[in-house]
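Encode chain A's predicted structure.
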Amino acid sequence: MPPANDLFLRINAFAADTPWLHGPAAAYATYGILVSVALMVAGWWVARRRDARTMATALLVPVAALAAFAVQQIVVLLVDEARPYAVHPDALVLIGRTSDPSFPSDHACLTGAIAAALFLVDRRLGWTATVVALLMAATRVYVGAHWPLDVVAGLALGAAVAIAVVLLLRRPVTRLVERLRSTAVAPLLVTSA
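Encoded structure for chain A:
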């Protein structure tokens, strides 16, 4: 039995032995992405008190997340890996089964992208988002939706794409933010003096 398969089965057995955790894990695996979205908003709020470069970075967090998701969708179609419950029909699955491929995890990719990009906005938000992303990755395996490698690859892919997008676009977006700070949209970009 391959090690990744064995690890999934061990985690699935652990899930079967911890029914008290089923509800919270299933809820987080399904809706936990909203915590990452809230952290993106917090990043924008924090950036309003900082320089134009920080605001540009905060505005690029959702762009980076969407770019990471787009790349993930291409990879998932190319790899076309079966979900764990398709390979192990008797596996415990705590959320709705889907027929889409498993590798890499889109939930892990999005939360990994948001975490990496938020590190470039504010370290505390970055660390918080990293915990949120790791918890998402763990719960996606716990609920039976993904293989462990799916979530690790999703986190790494999301982080890599997000950092590339921010580094590529930050300079022109910073110039745009500097110009917009003297217009009617200024309250969205900077706190009043």
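The longest helix spans residues 148-180.
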